[in-house]
Every structure is written in structure tokens, then in C-alpha cells.
Design goal:
Elements lengths: L6 H24 L8 E3 L11 E3 L5 H21 L1
Antiparallel strand pairs: 1-2
Length: 82
């Protein structure tokens, strides 16, 4: 029986979070946005945490504006296609 603290399941979730973090980083970089501290947060005992957190990092105002522009542009393209 698997429970909520199964180490393999938690490890899989953490690996998934790391992969998503890398993919997000690449996607943002392709749009000219670099988040300086994008990483998976090592909260508590990571082997037992089934909800890993992705820290988007500390960024300056220009980076925040660039990220906002990317999100707004994506939303506009989604709304047009709806």
C-alpha cells in the first residue's frame, strides 16, 4: 500500500518539478526573460514532500515587466483563438 509519504513517489514529483523548472526557464529565455533564481525550493525533507515548490526567484522591475509582457501576449493569443 502506498501512502502520501512514499519516498519514490515524492522523488518522482521532485524530478518532475525540476524538469518543469528547466522547461519554464528555456521557454522564458526564448522570449528574452531570465529569472535569476528559478529553482525547485528545497522545503523540508524533499524526499517526502509530494508538493514541491518552484521558486520563481527574485527579479528586478525590468524582468518582472518582461515576464508580464510574455504572459499578457500569451493570454491575448489564447483569447483570439477561442
Amino acid at each position: 500500500m502506498m501512502n502520501g509519504s512514499d519516498p519514490q513517489t515524492a522523488r518522482d514529483k521532485r524530478n518532475e518539478a525540476v524538469a518543469v523548472c528547466k522547461e519554464l526557464n528555456q521557454a522564458l529565455k526564448s522570449r528574452g526573460v531570465v529569472l535569476p533564481s528559478l529553482w525547485v525550493e528545497p522545503v523540508g525533507d524533499a524526499l517526502f514532500d509530494l508538493r514541491p515548490l518552484i521558486d520563481l526567484g527574485h527579479c528586478n522591475l525590468n524582468t518582472a515587466r518582461a515576464l508580464l509582457a510574455v504572459v499578457q501576449n500569451a493570454r491575448e493569443h489564447t483569447e483570439v483563438g477561442t
